[in-house]
């Protein structure tokens, strides 16, 4: 990722610009073996660590949503479309994390092996601080990659055991034993927790310059403000921190506590998952810290324009660097705005948005009018999905998606038209102009972790652990979180959110509401695919759309899903199974 290439250059410049740091020797091809580093070369081992950063998956922009009931695509070559249509196999897996993650882990293991042999700075105190920091980052990143491996490849063996992946904690040389069996799921989780604990212990909460030496945590010993700032100051914003390590722990624990992985022998509980999310929320400032503008973080123009390098808006816990482009809009604006209309939200997802009064559209008291289906709805519907009659683009152009519409935005009119009667609106900046005569770019960034995700993690886990109104150790409940999220969206604000009040009396009813809120709030950010699987929810719901003719609305089946029940778990890559006899495939996969 460009962010980390830039950061590497900036870091090397920072290291080499200080008069008491030694300039690295000119050497282009040193071997990555202990003792082969130039002892004065901090750039190379830091570059090894940067390889881990460069491999962080960006699920948010893969749009695997098109393999779920939330979206389809008009791109017939899309790998997720093919996967959903029955072409998902152990040797054809768009979700494969095996090669990427284990390559990253190898580099991180090299970093951990060699970190204490590197002279990071001429000043011994600063060198020690840098060593602590690099070690903490490597542990945290290794945990992150094991999380992604479990998410993509953990599963059920033929004997019914829940298996994880092989755990590699040492550098694997050419003579290493690569034929390792899969560790059980719980052992993998314990390794993730161990790595994250070490990261949290070694790293600061955030990278910021401090006001005085009195604010230096005791774990860093007796150092000056200047020494601390050189290792942990604001110049390193964007790298992994203690706050990020806590958030990764929340994500991993939610996966582990979920129905797909919570079998016998799994020591992670729903209470653990709630507590880990609660720690991140408490560090942010509690329930009141839910960002007021968190719904449209991607289009807050003044906020994005004012971002300093590495600094985060209030909604974002960790992100990549920003860039000026129009790629998302080019892919997803409707044809009349010179876009390719790639991601088409489904009627299934549209129906998940309640009315503005908070009642689902299936409730007779909701006020839903099938003849005017977008009137009086949850404001997030028009914010995230371009419906018929909605506006888009820099001139707020009215978009007609009806089957009898006059433009190429009409249902199935041309190859770039919507297949469902809907276009994507979320994530897109409407101030981008794609007209070739006046095209412009706008600033975008991609979050690795949003705070809303962590709030929803807490709500789900707290409800399962303590019920809708149980508060655990943090003073707020699943009910409190969902109320705050719906209130921010403008849902149920005129009637005291009567539907939520009804749901608070039942864990099962609250579970359904929490899952629906998660579906809405995190749509198109790469969550739905994984959520359905960890919940062991149905995978093969037919993707539906709407056909509008003469202002009459009729629902249509757009795409059948061809998933088998065992596909709640992904496969171990077929090539790895062929190479290594100790690897056991997940049940059902061949």
UniProtKB/TrEMBL annotation:
It holds the Pfam family SusD-like_3. Its main location: membrane. Coiled coil: none annotated. Residues 1-22 form the signal peptide. InterPro entries: SusD-like_N, SusD_RagB_dom, TPR-like_helical_dom_sf. SUPFAM superfamilies: TPR-like. Residues 61-211 form the SusD-like N-terminal domain. The keyword Zinc-finger does not apply. Residues 327-589 form the RagB/SusD domain. It is found in: Cell outer membrane. The keyword Transport does not apply. PROSITE patterns: PROKAR_LIPOPROTEIN. GO terms for cellular component: cell outer membrane. Keywords: Cell outer membrane, Membrane, Signal. Belongs to the SusD family. This is Starch-binding associating with outer membrane. It comes from Chitinophaga ginsengisegetis.
């Amino acid at each position: 990722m460009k962010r980390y290439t830039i950061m590497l250059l900036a870091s090397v410049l920072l290291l080499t610009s200080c008069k008491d740091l030694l300039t690295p020797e000119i050497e282009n091809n040193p071997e990555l073996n202990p003792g082969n580093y130039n002892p004065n070369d901090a750039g190379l081992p830091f570059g090894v660590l940067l390889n881990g950063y460069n491999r962080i998956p960006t699920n948010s922009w893969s749009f695997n949503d098109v393999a779920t009931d939330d979206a389809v695509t008009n791109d017939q070559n899309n790998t997720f479309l093919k996967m959903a249509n029955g072409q998902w196999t152990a040797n054809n897996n768009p979700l494969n994390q095996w090669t990427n993650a284990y390559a990253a882990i190898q580099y991180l293991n090299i970093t951990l092996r060699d970190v204490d042999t590197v002279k990071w700075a001429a000043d011994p105190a600063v060198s020690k601080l840098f060593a602590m920091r690099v070690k903490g980052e490597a542990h945290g990143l290794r945990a992150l990659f094991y999380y992604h491996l479990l998410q993509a490849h953990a599963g059920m063996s033929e004997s019914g055991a829940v298996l994880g992946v092989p755990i590699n904690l040492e550098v694997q040389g050419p003579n290493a034993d690569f034929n390792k069996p899969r560790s059980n799921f719980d052992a993998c989780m314990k390794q993730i927790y161990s790595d994250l604990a070490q990261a949290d212990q070694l790293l600061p909460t955030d990278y910021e310059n401090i006001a005085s030496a009195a604010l230096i945590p005791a774990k860093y010993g007796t150092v000056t403000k200047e020494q601390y700032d050189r290792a942990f100051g604001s110049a390193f914003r964007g790298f992994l921190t203690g706050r990020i390590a806590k958030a990764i722990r929340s994500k991993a624990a939610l996966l582990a506590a979920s129905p797909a992985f919570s079998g016998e022998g799994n020591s992670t509980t729903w209470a653990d998952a709630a507590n880990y999310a609660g720690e991140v929320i408490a560090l942010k400032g509690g329930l009141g810290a839910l960002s007021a503008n968190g719904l449209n973080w991607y289009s807050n123009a003044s906020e994005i324009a004012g971002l300093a390098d590495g600094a985060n808006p209030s909604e974002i816990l960790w992100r990549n660097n920003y860039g000026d482009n129009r790629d998302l809009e080019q892919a997803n604006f409707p044809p009349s705005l010179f876009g390719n209309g790639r991601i088409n939200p489904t009627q299934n997802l549209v129906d998940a948005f309640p009315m503005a009064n908070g009642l689902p559209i299936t409730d007779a008291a909701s006020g839903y009018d099938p003849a005017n289906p977008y009137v009086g709805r949850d404001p997030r519907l028009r914010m995230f999905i371009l419906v018929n009659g909605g506006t888009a683009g820099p001139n707020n152009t009215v978009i007609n998606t009806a089957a009898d519409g006059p433009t190429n935005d009409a249902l199935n009119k041309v190859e770039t038209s919507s297949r469902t009667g809907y276009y994507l609106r979320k994530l897109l900046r409407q101030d981008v102009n794609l007209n070739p005569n006046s095209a412009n770019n706008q600033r975008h960034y991609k979050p690795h972790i949003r705070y809303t995700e962590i709030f929803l993690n807490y709500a789900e886990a707290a409800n399962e652990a303590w019920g809708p109104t149980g508060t655990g150790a943090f003073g707020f409940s699943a009910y409190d979180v969902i109320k705050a999220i719906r209130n921010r969206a403008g849902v149920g604000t005129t009637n005291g959110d009567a539907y939520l009040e009804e749901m608070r009396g039942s864990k099962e009813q609250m579970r359904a509401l929490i899952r629906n809120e998660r579906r809405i709030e995190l749509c198109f950010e790469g969550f739905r695919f994984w959520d359905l699987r960890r919940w062991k929810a149905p995978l093969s719901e037919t993707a539906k759309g709407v056909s509008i003719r003469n202002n009459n609305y009729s629902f249509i089946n757009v795409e059948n899903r061809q998933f088998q029940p065992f596909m709640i778990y992904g496969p171990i890559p077929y090539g790895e199974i062929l190479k290594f006899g100790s690897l056991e495939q997940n049940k059902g996969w061949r």
